[in-house]
Amino acid sequence: MHESVSVDDNSQQHVLAALDGAEGLTPDPDFRRRLDQHFPTLRGLFHSLYGSRQDWLDQLAALVVQSARSWQERSADLKALDTERETNTGWFQSNAMLGGVCYVDRYAESLEGVRARIPYFKELGLTYLHLMPLFLAPEPHSDGGYAVSSYRQVNPKLGTMEQLKSLAAELRRNGISLVVDFIFNHTSDEHDWAQKAAAGDPEYSDYYWIFPDRTMPDAFEENVREIFPENHPGSFIQMPDGRWVWATFHTYQWDLNYSNPDVFRAMAGEMLFLANQGVDILRMDAVAFIWKQLGTTCENLPEAHSLLQAFNSVCRLAAPSLLFKSEAIVHPDEVARYIDPAECQLSYNPLQMALIWESLATRDVSLLAQALERRHNIPDGTAWVNYVRSHDDIGWTFADEDAAELGINGFDHRRFLNSFYVNRFPGSFARGVPFQDNPKTGDCRISGTTASLCGMEVNPAEAVERILLAHSVPFSTGGIPLLYLGDEVAQLNDYNYAMEEGHDADSRWVHRPHYPARHYARRSDPATPEGAVFAGLKRMIAVRAATPELAGTRLVDFHTGDRAVLAYQRPGESSTVLVLANFSDSPEALPAETFAGFSPAAVDLLSEAALHLDEGITLLPRQSVWLRVTPL
Q1: How far apart are CA 390 and CA 77, in angstroms?
Q2: What positions carry a catalytic annotation?
Q3: How far apart are CA 356 and CA 601, in angstroms?
Q4: Where are the alpha helices (DSSP H) in 293-434?
Q5: How many angstroms separate the CA atoms of 227 and 616, rounded?
Q6: Which residues pair with 160 in a beta bridge?
Q7: What is 122-163 written as a DSSP string?
Q8: What is the pLDDT of residues 11-53, one digit of tens each?
Q9: Is 588's pLDDT higher than 50?
Q10: Nearest residue to 555 via CA among 383, 372, 382, 381
Q11: How many alpha carbons lie under 13 Å from residue 474 in its C-beta half-sphere?
């Protein structure tokens, strides 16, 4: 975890002296109480990262003073929320949680447009709203907003920071937590820090990984993989003055140098500023890449975890209700390492997402069942964010060694899945679009809305069933289910995406359509595909919120002996919810002995139908049932 620091050293006295001597700071008993509680952890983490520097203790003292100033500036209503959530630390594990995600401009045009959609969010049941990157970013080199040139200014096309703060308060009054992206691995090359570095300012040159020649870049690149080779070779790009700067992703995204504590303090300041605007959850972008060390791959290093834990400790001082959500599209074992109450309390679940689509294509749930049994349960005090699809492409993130246990060759299977979802496989129902396609190797990732990938353009009736089947998994496995807004009314691919400026080279815009007004207008008519999907999801949302067994994340596996039927248990105090999901295109009969561990009487919570387990159960094609059962 982190290097311990002797409890008899003078570090806490040094920090307290800095606090007492800080101009304009009023002593605050709440802040001092939390400092007493969390300082040993912060001190140990900070020392493990920066203890080799002579000024590490002064840097730590400056960080604590900075945190105290942020707390002093925090509004009374946010402090009240902090107090409430300090006593209700598991608030985000409620079975009433429901997430939605959208681009502000595409879904609502502006922040004021988002405010106007709050009545709909309440109709749907949202308690968590993720607004995709909305900070100032240069055009056309914005990477969809992930190249930030100011963390304190909103893109003027969307509104102002004051409007974001007001929106956060309005959402909070309506029971909806605001989530935004914290892009902290890199900034835009047009950020003020980067501009000063480019001009040769030595202080800000140290904010980035900048070298005078190729000696160090060549040494690093012996072990570091290329992320976007079609954008630029290697991990470094040459600056106009001849120096070389680290750019893991695009040429205009410069990686921050966290070996410099000034960078840590600067980004902690940006983080606390956003918390004080009313942001509840930060999506921590590209966590795997944030620490660099010569001779390594510079991914998933131990110091990356120490950094996240140190940022978390700062939040416990100055914004105790703020949570982190990790974004790590890496090996499943590495994804799990970021999930901890002291690191990232929330995490995307890319493995579950990918294997839902794998199961739909193969009609075989073996890989998904294996993942749920082996990789679903995570530490107490944490939760998955489960989803069918996001703003991003679909990549096949399962571990090859997991697949090999089931007799599946990972390389060949990914080629099949790519072929299936871009309609290159005979009989495929999917109408996806390839992203970063390589026809020679068959390698690509998949773009497409849920409806188009589920076959809405081929057979609407079956597509509705697939959409509901797919969503039944994230809605019942435990964690926060997340909808890409518009998918709940079966929005289709936008094949005109390439007509918009800057979008022609990125097929992911095919599944980021503008607000589908016609689809929403049909949501109350169950005779339409839009209405059928909306009604089915609304039913799941209502049942989930009324079912205490579906709170938290604990899941117990259940084996049916049928490779087409996914099954798992969500245990409660006196009863259990047994989920059965048939991914086959034909009926699947499960004999009575499958349910020998339960009393015969059961009820399907979704349909309210009574069932008799001692008679066995036959599932219709693409049917999911949530059975309340009583273990013997």
Answers
A1: 32
A2: 285, 327
A3: 30
A4: 302-318, 332-337, 350-362, 366-375, 400-405, 410-421
A5: 51
A6: none
A7: HHHT-SEEEE---EE--SSS-GGGTS-SEEEEE-TTT--HHH
A8: 999 999 999 999 999 989 999 999 999 999 999 999 999 999 9
A9: yes
A10: 372
A11: 31
